[in-house]
Amino acid sequence: xxxxxxxxxxxxxxxxxxxxxxxxxxxxxxxxxxxxxxxxxxxxxxxxxxxxxxxxxxxxxxxxxxxxxxxxxxxxxxxxxxxxxxxxxxxxxxxxxxxxxxxxxxxxxxxxxxxxxxxxxxxxxxxxxxxxxxxxxxxxxxxxxxxxxxxxxxxxxxxxxxxxxxxxxxxxxxxxxxxxxxxxxxxxxxxxxxxxxxxxxxxxxxxxxxxxxxxxxxxxxxxxxxxxxxxxxxxxxxxxxxxxxxxxxxxxxxxxxxxxxxxxxxxxxxxxxxxxxxxxxxxxxxxxxxxxxxxxxxxxxxxxxx
Length: 306
What we know:
The longest helix is centred in the C-terminal third of the chain and has 36 residues, at 193-228. Strands 2-1-3 form a three-stranded mixed β-sheet. It has eleven helices and three strands. Helix 8 packs antiparallel against helix 9 (231-259). The protein has helices spanning 2-10, 25-51, 58-86, 94-127, 132-135, 138-163, 181-185, 193-228, 231-259, 268-291, 295-305; strands spanning 12-14, 91-92, 173-174. The radius of gyration is 21 Å and the shape is globular. It starts with a helix and ends with a helix. By secondary structure, the protein is mostly helical.
């Protein structure tokens, strides 16, 4: 009994998307459907890239990595959230919370860096096509992916180890639907203002710099397209770039708004609503934005089905 009581004392309670104790069948069904569609879309995209040799290019290699991250990302948060809808117990173990926090930060940081590398790939392909085989060789692609995973993992490990060594001497109720760093800081009973500056610095490096690189890359791409293409080509380029920028902005802006504010300015309900975008909506949109508007992917799907 003593061991059970000690375990209960170290467990956390997740409030969910609504206030603790509320249930919403419609929301549960919607989240399950979104989860299933996101998984299916990303899995199909990975299989197409894997099976069709015409898609064995640097752009699609990076895109397959993005799909893998999105599968992992949405699988880190949604399954626990959906089981909480169905159960009376909203608890998550201390170890489970540590693992969820670490995995989410790894995947979020890695995806932020990868999106920046993907924009660089498009920049080289359109602005420097003759140098593309050299600047985006297989070795360089693997180097980019390795850098993204390594940087994201190191950043996540440092923050996770530090936060979970802090004393949690307030309520064990996490006013969120998963274990996220800003929500955990609300439970810490010592001053974390200095540590929050390190969080902001990390976000500026991992989120803001890649986002600025994406904006600069697409600005260069559009300038080249408008100089060389016809009216129809310009319209298609603007349409493609704008859709990519909308999804990227959704990911980066919501992430920055959550992680660059001091915890005194956080609103639990606002944090939960914003987190839905970079934990659920973005993994859902990415495979469709990057594939349905892409003739190569559509062609690969037709060849596979035939």
